[in-house]
Amino acid sequence: MPDTTPKLFQPLKLQGLTLPNRIVVSPMCMYSAHNGLANDFHLVHLGQFALAAPGLIFTEAAAVSPEGRISPEDLGLWADEQIIPLGRITDFIHAQGGRVGIQLAHAGRKASTYAPWRGKGAVAHEYGGWGVIGPDTQAFAPVFHTPNAMTADDIGRVTQDFVAAAQRAEIAGFDVVEIHAAHGYLLHQFMSPLSNSRTDDYGGSFENRTRFLMDVVRAVRGGWPMHKPLFVRVSATDWAGSGWDLEQTVRLAGLLEREGVDVLDVSSGGLTTEQQITPAPGYQVPFATAVKDAVRDLDVMAVGMIESPQQAEDILQKGQADLIALGRPFLGDPHWAWHAAQQLGVTPDVAAQYQRGNRLD
Length: 361
Fold this sequence. Notes:
It is a single chain. This protein is α/β, with parallel strands linked by helices. The protein has a single domain (7-352), classed as Aldolase class I (TIM Barrel, Alpha-Beta Barrel), CATH 3.20.20.70. It contains eleven helices and 13 strands. Strands 3-4-6-9-10-11-12-13 form an eight-stranded parallel barrel, surrounded by seven helices. It has a two-stranded antiparallel ribbon with strand order 1-2. Strand 3 (23-25), helix 1 (40-50) and strand 4 form a beta-alpha-beta unit. Helix 7 (246-258) packs across helix 8 (285-294). The two termini are 25 Å apart. Its cofactor is FMN. This is 2,4-dienoyl-CoA reductase-like NADH-dependent reductase (Old Yellow Enzyme family). InterPro entries: Aldolase_TIM, OxRdtase_FMN_N, YqjM-like. Residues 7-344 form the NADH:flavin oxidoreductase/NADH oxidase N-terminal domain.
């Protein structure tokens, strides 16, 4: 007999990990760490999601080196002392039967900036800011730091920073690692011709502009257990002329598939202040669909203004994506997965302590 369970609540096997449903808590920066260390805020913030049983919970972006933080308050995984605080979080989520991933990132030229509610632009050195790096010396915007162009040694060092962070993530108990190559951060900066004017092996052609990301993917895949899934987040388009676009994203997806990436997390934008975006419900889903149509063994995650359970279910039913990532909906309703189950006629899988709140019957 066919499975009549809504697709949103059907399991998905990724290597040795089985997600109980297709709902993913997307990485969301909280700007609440000190020296990169997770604290009680992160434990409560991420732990609350586990009580309503989404398929996978991601931490916010964790910087692989101090220079790679977006803000001074970013989470980090560049040092061994950052492992144990993150381990408290993975232990709690696992105790609730959940699965948890961490997004590894380097902000490049968009580093050393204020948390959104503290101001805009570059943090001055006297207030805890630092020098930033990028593919070349183009600043993201006039109010941002001017980066130093990375040398070959810098590229090799940051590649190893990603590997070391992934190895710490394994010790901390994470089930999934995601490499952040979207939203105008360092790896995306190398990919886009709008932010990469290099003339060496890391600039110019598509192969050269994607070389840094491919270096990182190969190195991380080699240092991350093969039975654990590896995700990569990309911006499918810069939303700007002559920039990174969907055609290049589809081409990149084929390369990542061959390198053992399990899921491509398809977002968009963030590379340039010249981007022209008209947001609408599900406006990024067609990008995920284009990738899904072009690959065979690579699962695809859609994200961006997916608000309602029925909207998420329709995306999956139409074969437009394999996973649904949600950010703001979970900020507004930490029990979104629970309420989605109720709306789609599924018995919610929630913590026993919360089951008195189940009014499905």
